[in-house]
Specification:
Length: 466
């Protein structure tokens, strides 16, 4: 395809950048809505009884949604080339294994895991980990036989295994496959199960949607003692890599795959419209409306103003449907995205009283459906900005990290902070803990460094891929 849906890269980039930002701001001096709703300051102790969501709680769902939206492009393109479904399933499983290894490897080489307090050895090992990840995940640009490429990757994986097995960790910790990065591990599971579902339902969208209520039924009935659903829920051949409860995130990935199909159909249709005066006002209206929907739901649910939030949502969603009632090209795409997002937002709000209110952990049905609906709105918003108004240069800081998310995810912990500590610059970060504004600025500066480094490697076509 000559044209690319930059909105999808931008959504993935937004998710990864805010993921880094949320992990690098000052630990406990910012307002509660700057952290996960269930880990409020100043102690930041997890409290499962707390309900509500913050912008931090949207980060992971948005990334999952973008993963699902990429299936029609990656898998769909392979099917069009004649690749068999068996081969695609093999590739999905292979990708899941690689992501699982990635989750285990990086978790073992965070500096605070290697030593406490951190020292030069831990920082150098973290940088070595970052370096080893390159031959493991990049497509080597040098022309050589395929067996040579494979040998390089095998050697890199071998080095990683030796590093994990022989390294001494803090607090007498030893290498353990069950010690992994949970975010990446969940992504690994979604890469396998989400891909397989998409492969076998690529031309049967309603069957794919039907997976959601079946999965929901199993999750709900698994609480019945002695039931077969409980046996399915509890069974795991690899406890360190898979649990049935991970599959609840398919509630986000599957709708994401539908959004990806909308995007791909729109690109393939050849009816991409040009900017017109009529569409401009609709586009501006949708920018304001989609952004307002995200902010209103965050504020309304964080403050537990559920009734006013429902009323404002109902009015806003109705207004959006009215605004997009006519038109083709971009308008047709926006209409599909908005209606799908509207359904999921309403569904999520209807589920809000269930399970004690909306929560990220353990994830409630309200959280899964609502965040999926808001992801539709986020994708629509970015499609207007990136693809309709063609703000390519101004959104490059989102698009380029979105094209290289694995690197962006670890670059602060495995490169930026170790280098900062080795050079003595890290000691200056203590001055950013004086107040909330400085604490936020700390996160912004570290995130900017992560973005710049990732953009550099993306620009030279150095991508980490599974």
């Amino acid at each position: 395809m000559e044209k690319r849906a930059y909105a999808l890269d931008a959504l993935r980039g937004y998710a990864i950048i805010t993921m880094v930002l949320s992990a690098t701001v000052a630990w406990n001096i910012l307002p509660g809505w700057m952290y996960h709703a269930q880990t409020p300051p100043p102690e930041r102790t997890f409290d499962a009884s707390l309900t509500g969501i913050t912008w931090v709680d949207l980060v992971f769902p948005f990334f999952l949604f973008a993963m699902g939206a990429a299936f029609p492009f990656s898998i769909g393109k392979r099917i069009e080339k004649g690749v068999s479904k068996i081969q695609l399933v093999y590739e999905a499983i292979k990708r899941g294994i690689q992501l699982t290894f990635f989750a285990i490897f990086i978790q073992h080489f965070y500096p605070h895991i290697l030593s406490d307090p951190q020292d030069m050895r831990s920082w150098l090992l973290a940088i070595l980990c970052f370096a080893v990840l390159f031959p493991m995940f990049i497509r080597i640009p040098v022309k050589m036989p395929s067996w040579a490429h494979l040998c390089i990757k095998i050697v890199a994986y071998g080095i990683a295994v030796i590093m994990m097995v022989t390294t001494r960790y803090a607090h007498e910790r030893v290498f353990d496959v069950a010690f992994s990065n949970i975010i990446i591990l969940l992504l690994a599971n979604m890469a396998v199960f989400g891909s397989v579902i998409y492969i076998f339902t690529i031309n049967h969208r309603w069957i794919r949607i039907g997976v959601i209520p079946i999965l929901m039924a199993i999750l709900l009935s698994s609480r019945v003692e002695g039931s077969w659903t409980q046996a399915v829920f509890n069974y795991t051949p690899l406890p360190w890599a898979y649990h049935f409860e991970y599959l609840q995130y398919l509630f986000i990935v599957i709708p994401g795959s539908m959004a990806g199909e909308y995007l791909r159909d729109w690109l393939k249709s050849g009816t991409v419209s040009t900017i017109s005066s009529a569409n401009i006002w609709q586009a501006i209206g949708m920018i304001l409306l989609t952004l307002a929907l995200i902010i209103v739901n965050l504020a309304g649910l964080y403050t537990h103003a559920t009734i006013p939030n429902l009323i404002v949502n109902s009015m806003s969603l109705t207004g959006g449907i009215f605004l997009l009632r006519k038109g083709t090209g971009f308008i047709e795409l926006w209409r599909k995205l908005f209606i799908a997002g509207t359904f999921l937002i309403i569904l999520g709000l209807c589920f809000e009283p269930f399970q004690g209110g909306i929560k990220k952990d353990p994830a409630t049905f309200s959280y899964l459906f609502l965040t999926s609906g808001l992801a539709f709105m986020g994708l629509l918003l970015l499609n207007i900005i990136c693809d309709y108004f063609r703000c390519v240069k101004s959104t490059r800081f989102l698009v380029m990290p979105g094209q290289n998310p694995m690197m962006a995810y670890v670059v602060v912990d495995l490169l930026v902070m170790p280098v900062a500590n080795l050079t003595g610059i890290a000691s200056l970060l203590v001055y950013f803990n004086s107040n909330a504004w400085m604490g936020f600025l700390r996160g912004v500066l570290l995130t900017m460094l992560a973005v710049v480094i990732t953009m550099f490697f993306t620009r030279i076509r150095c991508f980490w891929r599974t």
